[in-house]
Structures are given as C-alpha cells and as structure tokens.
Write a structure and sequence with these properties.
Layout (H helix, E strand, L loop, with lengths): L1 H59 L4 E8 L3 E6 L3 E8 L2 E8 L4 E3 L6 E10 L2 E4 L4 E3 L3 E7 L4 E9 L5 E8 L4 E3 L3 E4 L4 E8 L8 E11 L3 E10 L4 E4 L2 E6 L5 E9 L5 E10 L5 E3 L4 E5 L4 E8 L8 E10 L5 E10 L9 E4 L2 E6 L4 E10 L5 E10 L4 E4 L3 E5 L4 E9 L7 E11 L2 E11 L3 E5 L2 E5 L6 E3 L2 E3 L4
Length: 482
C-alpha cells in the first residue's frame, strides 16, 4: 500500500510540474508581448511630443526654437525624419514594425534613436522645422581608447548632412600627437553620410597613464570631439567598465559592478582595489577590496558603491577606481558622479516641489516654498515664474521675477495661496512654470475647495465639513464656505 501511495504521489507531482511549466511559459510570452506593445506605444508618444513642439515653433515663425524632453524606448533599429513624417523602425522580437507620425509641415534634421531620456532641439528655419542642434550631425562627442604602447586602435566619426546645400568641413587634432586622421578636409553632400577614421598610435616608449586630445571641427559647423587615450601597463590587468557614470542625490547611493580580469599569460596575485580623486572618500566596496589571485583569462567582480555626503552641492565630480596587482600590473575605471536635486540626468532647469496638493476652504491661505535650480554648466539670466489655473491664486515673495541663477545654484521663492471668496466646491488644477530662455520646468498645483455646512445647536453656531469648527472672518464668526 505504501509503495502504491508513493507512486501515486509521484504521478500527481509530475502532472502539477507540467501544468506549472506550461502556465509559466504562457505568462512569460504574454509579459514579453506586453513589453513590446508598451515600447511601441512609447515610441509613438515620443514622435507625437516632438511633432507637437514642431507645430508650436512653426506657428511662431522663422527663428523660433524650443527644447522638448522625450523618453525613447528600446528596440529601435533606426530613426528617420521625412519631409512630411517622423518614423521609428522597431525590432519587436524579430518582427520589424514601423511607427510613424505624419505631419502637414516641412520637416528636416534628425531625431534621437538611443534608449532613455533625451532632449531634442526644435527650430523653425527656412519655412521648415528642423530637429537637432544643427543640420550637420556628428555621430560621436567623445572617443575612448584603451591600448598598449606601440599598438594601434581605430574609431570612426560619422558626419551626416541634413541640409539642402553642400557642407565643407575641416578637422584638426589638438592636445596630443597620438591621434591620426584618415582625412582632414571633407565635403558632405546633402543627405550624405561620410566617415573619418581616427587612429590612436602611441609610441612604444609611451608611459602608462591617461592622455587627452581633441578633434576640432570647423567650416560649415563648429564642434569638438574629445578623445581619451588610456595607455595600459605592460602586465595585462583590465577593469570594466571603462567609465562608471552615476546620477544621484546627496546622501543617496549608487552601485556598480567592477570586473577585474587577467588578460595576460601569468598569474597575478594580491590585487588591491582603491579609489582616488574627489569621489575617493565617497566610494566603498561590498566586501574585501582585494582579490587573492587571478589566473590567466580569469575575471572576478567587486561591487563598488558611491554615496555623496549630505550637503554635497549640485555638480559633477570625478575620480577613479584602481586595480593593482603585485609587480605593478594595473588598470582603472574612470568615475563621474553627477549630484542633482532629482537624482537623474533629466533637465538643466528644475523646479521643486513638482506637485503641491492643497485641501482648503474659501478665504483660507496655504504656504509653500518653490525652489528653482540651475543644474547646467552656464549662467541662466532672466529666470522667471509663470502661473496658470489655480496657481494664479499664489503670491510670491520676493516675486515671480527671479533674475540670474549661476551653475549649481538655487533660488527659493515663498508662495502663499489664498482661495478667493465665492469659489465653488470642487477641484482646481494649475501650474507653476520656471522659465529661462528656451528652457522650462513645470510644477503642478491641485486645490480641492470644500463647502462647509452650517447648523445651530442650542443657539451655538457649529460647522460640519472636513473639519468641524467656527472661524473668525472680518471680526464675525461664520463657517468658511457656508
């Protein structure tokens, strides 16, 4: 009997396992399908947001500009600005799908296709609307090289001409003699993309360390492409990633896995991880900051955590994480920490709080403080506040005109909101917008105004509402809103 019961139990468990596996597989497929549909919707919303900004500047006339923030999803294969449409081509699990938004305006330029939050410049120019900072798109803003002295490493810069006329460009290397260009003068025809190969060729006697240079672009467009050349030590120890970029707030932590690998053919021992630079004291390692040994082709991972101290000013801070073994083999990861009020790489102009919800009665007053910050690298002039909706009930001290805010600086404006007498019961939305040139940041206000019932008990006035009580108004006892 016991043997029969055991067999029956195994059969039941097997059936349950098959059912569970089938349900899990179906659920996983449905989840992936939902994610792909969500990405397609996000792509369409991004295109619509950019077209809405284009319509605004087009209606304002020649020379009008704007910057719009869009959230670009993953799975985008290509981005295209047609004469009368914007289009993303997406790879949804091997199924190619075009997400397109038509327009009745003439369009030109280029739109971002990289996943994540992106700022897009929009300008009314020559009877059309141009997307992008200029009509000449440079594919790279920075080139990073990691190689040994005597080796050669190549990277490519692509120049795309979205203009209707020919573009003549000149390229010059400054700051180093290790970079060699495949061409110093190029002509890019309308709609054409040309590539220039930039080769790093450090001499064999170059000492290990970091070297920097620039590729200056002149002619039809002026821009700069920065170059970082890291000469590795002759012993082949390597850290990944090359650069650790963290966006956070003072007092909050961000983590990163630092992978340390032995690329040589000999054993490396007693590998120590240390940090340096401004952020050195902010970095801690999860567990011992040492690796006893690494065999050839072996890697180990160490978690590093960076925490800017409370009170750290808004700005960007740098340093490095160095891995060094006995005998001198070493490599480092460059660390760049951006401290902001929001903890993200979203906007150069920020207004806080983003949402102010108020529940009150007529003639009551609520107080708050708005903080406007410049998270960019240049001075903002003529900064001001604009209100709409229920935010028009706010008075500011010292006022709506803020003036100048320097990089990394903030301005506090006291806000006092009073609901006008006679306002009916209901919800009243509004906005407070900070403006600085073409930049803007919006905070939302929602005021819920309540009506209060009045009744009398033994000749004593009572109020019945969200809070029971009698209020003095103009030296008379009455119920606010009654």
């Amino acid at each position: 009997m016991k043997a029969q019961a055991s067999v029956e139990l195994l059969v039941i468990l097997s059936v349950l396992l098959i059912v569970f596996s089938t349900v899990s597989f179906v659920a996983q497929e449905q989840y992936q399908e939902s994610q792909m549909n969500l990405d397609a919707v996000k792509a369409k919303n991004a295109l619509r947001t950019m077209l809405s900004a284009a319509s605004d500047v087009y209606s304002q006339g020649e020379g009008a500009t704007s910057r719009v923030y869009v959230d670009i999803p993953g799975r985008i294969e290509s981005a295209e600005v047609g004469q009368r449409f914007l289009k993303y081509r997406m790879d949804l699990a091997g199924r190619i799908q075009d997400v397109m938004e038509p327009s009745d305006m003439c369009l030109t330029g280029y739109i971002p296709g990289e996943a994540g939050g992106q700022w897009v410049q929009v300008e009314s120019r020559g009877g059309c609307v141009m997307f992008g900072e200029s009509l000449i798109k440079v594919s790279a803003g920075r080139l990073n090289y990691r190689l040994y002295a005597g080796d050669t490493q190549e990277q490519t810069i692509r120049f795309t001409n979205y203009d209707t006329k020919q573009a003549n460009l000149s390229l010059t290397v400054t700051g180093t003699d290790m970079l060699v260009l495949s061409a110093e003068n190029i002509t890019v025809e309308p709609g054409e993309t040309l590539s220039v190969v930039v080769a790093a060729k450090p001499p064999e006697d170059t000492a290990k360390g970091s070297y920097y240079g620039h590729i200056e672009v002149g002619g039809a467009q002026s821009s700069t492409v920065d170059a970082s050349i890291l000469i590795l030590g002759q012993a082949q120890l390597t850290t990944y990633p090359d650069t650790w970029t963290a966006y956070t707030m003072a007092g909050e932590s961000k983590s990163q896995d630092i992978v340390v690998c032995n690329r040589g053919d000999t054993l490396l021992t007693n590998i120590k991880l240390t940090s340096s630079g401004v952020v050195a004291s902010w970095i801690a390692f999860g567990g011992p900051a040492t690796i006893d040994s690494l065999q050839p082709a072996e890697c180990q991972t160490k978690q590093a955590v960076v925490t800017p101290p409370e009170g750290t000013a808004v700005g960007t801070y740098t340093g490095s994480v160095l891995a060094e073994a006995d005998g001198g083999a070493s490599d480092s990861t460059f660390v760049e920490v951006t401290v902001s009020l929001s903890g993200g790489n979203m906007s150069e102009l920020v207004i806080m709080p983003r949402q102010w919800n108020v529940t009150m009665w007529r003639l009551q007053t609520a107080n708050n403080t708005y903080t406007v910050c410049n998270l960019g690298g240049s001075v903002f002039t003529d900064v001001s506040l604009e209100t709409a909706g229920s935010a028009d009930w706010i008075t500011f001290d010292p006022g709506k005109s803020i003036g100048v805010i320097g990089p990394g600086k903030c301005f506090n404006d006291a806000a006092s909101l009073t609901v006008p007498d006679g306002t009916a019961h209901g919800a009243y939305p509004g906005t407070v917008s900070a403006k600085a040139g073409n930049l803007s940041a919006v905070a939302y206000v929602n005021v819920d105004v309540y009506q209060v019932l009045v009744f009398s008990i033994f000749n004593e006035t009572r109020c019945c509402g969200p809070v029971e009580g009698v209020f003095n108004v103009n030296s008379k006892q009455r119920c606010i809103g009654g």
